[in-house]
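Reopening this one. Same input as before:
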Amino acid sequence: MLLTTAAVMSALVLLASGGAWAFTGWASGRLDRIDPFGALGDRPEDGPRGALTFLLVGADDRSGLTREELDRLNLGRDEGGARTDTMMLVHLNRERDAISVVALPRDSWVTIPGHGPAKINAAYSFGGPQLAVQTVERATGVRIDHYAEVNFLGFLRVVDALGGVRICLPEPISDPRSGLQLPAGTHVVDGAGALAYVRTRSTAGGDLDRIDRQQRFISALLEAATDTRTLSDPARFTAFSETVLQTVTVDDGLTGGALLELGNQLRSVSMDDVTFTTVPAAQTDFTAPTGESAVLWDTEAARELFGRISRDEPLAEPSPPAAAQAGGAAEEPAQAAPELIVPPADITVQVRNGAGIQGLGARADEELRAAGFNVPVPADNWVGGTVEQTVVRHAAHRADSARTVAAALPGSRLERAGELGDGVEVVLGPDYQGVRAVEAAAPDSAGSGGIQAATATDNVCA
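Same output, byte for byte:
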């Protein structure tokens, strides 16, 4: 399936790289344009003057691929027509010093105008870009200012034009459906490998883990696209820019002049200024009336998230980096954690026995499950040897989840680990005292609406 990852990357790089190269008449003429707004009525109100929100869509159009290529990429047959996978909102604040990216899970159960309740990715199939825009506006209450779309072949070509992209796997993945077969660690993948990476759902979190990987991949693409080796090599940069321009379809309001203005405004935006999040979910295994498995949004938390976009406010701030520790990890004292906002039922934990005490991992697994945490994989031994203190390791965008886990493990400490994905890792020390029950605050009292955000820098391999 084609994913919005390529669309987001292409549009962000197109805007954020800046420079007149991308917005001359030559470049502007290479962009395909459509009108997705022409007949829309009853739309949300405009946001603050100067702020802009894009709807970015990945179209699952396989029409340009041969039977042999479809087989090689594990894509099945070309059934004709086009669908969407996940969609994303990209918000540029009016000061042009921050970009917020909000993933809309493809299985989100929403109301599609004229068609009734269905998964959000059906909107494009029913009515193309116009109905996709209308559906997202109705579901979010956010007015869409611009539209961008990328096709399947574009994803492969953009990655290959960059000479591959670096990814990190905290655990090995063997997925015959997507074709991804990689051990744990850091890898440089080409377009075909990248497609398998962002398609796989073989990890415990399913589609939500996949969204997390997509966001990480966007960050890696941005890093590669803005690398000095790309920007300073005329041949490489020209190949990349031509690929992006030939890949993206935009609304007809994005004229060459408008793109030039945006590019100049965003030239100072760095990866630290690009923040990612996903619509908070109340239920990820909802059984729809049609029998399909779908995602239900957390109504209050989603309202808070989309309200921030409409008001041109920043997303929930990720936790500030803690002091660097030995080995490059960042550590923060568990006792100083703010109010808990992620409940145990929403957290997946992997236990590693770093105490050298036989049976301690299995005991911790059982006690964490009893406290409501998800522990899908049995504990194993910590490859780093013995540790003196129990450690709760987490990626930057899962700091809120990690705080809940640390609160349940008296005496533990928090440690940020860039290579981890969506779950939280507990490394048991000899000080392990068991698990105590914890509760998360209701979203409205927690103050962040359950929104967990991470910057593009946080999402890149550590």
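So the earlier flakiness isn't reproducible anymore. For the record, Residues 323-446 form one domain.
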